Amino acid sequence: MKTLLRLILLLPLPAFAQFGRSYTGPTMQQNQQSRQDFNRMTNQRTQDFQQRLLLRGRSGQGGLSMREASLQAHAKQQKLEQEATESLARLSQQQQRQRQEHPAPNPQQAAAQQKADDKQLTLLAVKNYRDVFLPGQLSSALEAQSFSPSAAQSMRSLNQNLLDDAWWSKQAGAQAPANVKAYGDSLRSLTAGLLGFSLAAPPAKPAAFSANGLREQLTKDTFDQSAATQLLREAALSDRLSALHSDNLPKAVQEFSDLATALPSDPKKLRKEVQKSLREVNKQLARYQLRLAAANQVYLAEKALRKTTSTYLAKNTK
After folding, report:
1. What is the DSSP string of 252-299?
2. Backbone phi, psi, residue 4, to 5°
3. Which residues, at least 6 apart from 281, have a Cβ–Cβ distance to it below 8 Å?
4. Are 168 and 267 in contact (CB under 8 A)?
């Protein structure tokens, strides 16, 4: 129950802000449908959250807040990555020292020794990537699917104010239009942060995932970790772009921002239009999260990368 509660607190506020006390107008059937959508999203995010716990090995920290657990997980991951990097550097130094202390008698043997040393380095680099870097990268990709704690707080404040009639009653003169414009700018920034790209210039969808390039590298006993990392990033981007579904979310955010350029002078009409537009943003954010929770390209990419590296290690490790 505690885990589920933390999960719900992590969910983007737009998933349930439209059910706030200032929400007016929906029918009972619409409310029921919205609750069903929310329940489906909660179930999906629960599964996602449980996967993150397994990846991070945080199951024994039930008493920590999600923010504390996240900070500790990041610190642990950084330590593991530093240790992995240092182990590779130590091996390289040991090899160099060994070659200096026991030089090969001729160029042919020197080349053979260098080739053997390079393969040892590749084996360790691949093992470090599979066991340390890849799990951390998958965890980061999953974490990036939701608002950061600070962004979630900003979304919470934005919704609490703009959907609260009491807040509107305190706005005088040009104060409301100025605040609406500021909130519009903030909403664009928060949404861009969630998506990982600017709404004005979305990236092209990456090519279909393929581990063939990595396999070809490994057949030559070479390994480019940055290339493997890029494959996972592109898979995560593919999931986000697919979850946008006809660009309804960017459109809703843009329409909210456009309100600031043509705000009605009537305070009641202004409030009504802003709240209606914000509810549409909330609805599209919730739908985006549902589709993203069901996406699987990043999982398939991680599985393929793990399988490819494991196969190489199994074939070349005695």
Report:
1. HHHHHHHGGGS--SSHHHHHHHHHHHHHHHHHHHHHHHHHHHH--HHH
2. -65, -40
3. 14, 187, 249, 252, 253, 256
4. yes
pLDDT digits (tens, 9 = 90+) for 81-118: 999 999 999 999 999 999 999 999 999 999 999 999 99
Distance CA 71, CA 76 (A): 9
Tell whether the model's pLDDT for residue 222 goes beyond 50: yes
235 near 297, Cβ under 8 Å?
yes
Q: Is the dihedral of CA 184, 187, 193, 196 positive or negative?
A: negative
Long-range residue pairs from 174-178, CB within 8 A, at least 24 positions apart, any chain: 176/267, 176/270, 176/271, 177/260, 177/263, 177/270
Residue-averaged pLDDT of the chain = 82
Check pLDDT > 50 for residue 2.
Answer: no
DSSP secondary structure letter of residue 204: P
- CA distance linking residue 104 with residue 46, whole number of Å: 59
Among candidate residues 103, 13, 104, 51, the one with its CA nearest the CA of residue 289: 13
- What is the Cα–Cα distance from 56 to 68, expressed in whole angstroms? 13
Residue written as tokens 């979305």? 202
pLDDT tens, 131-152? 999 999 999 999 999 998 889 9
Phi, psi of 224 (to 5 degrees): -105, 100
Q: Which residue's entry shows tokens 């909403």?
A: 187
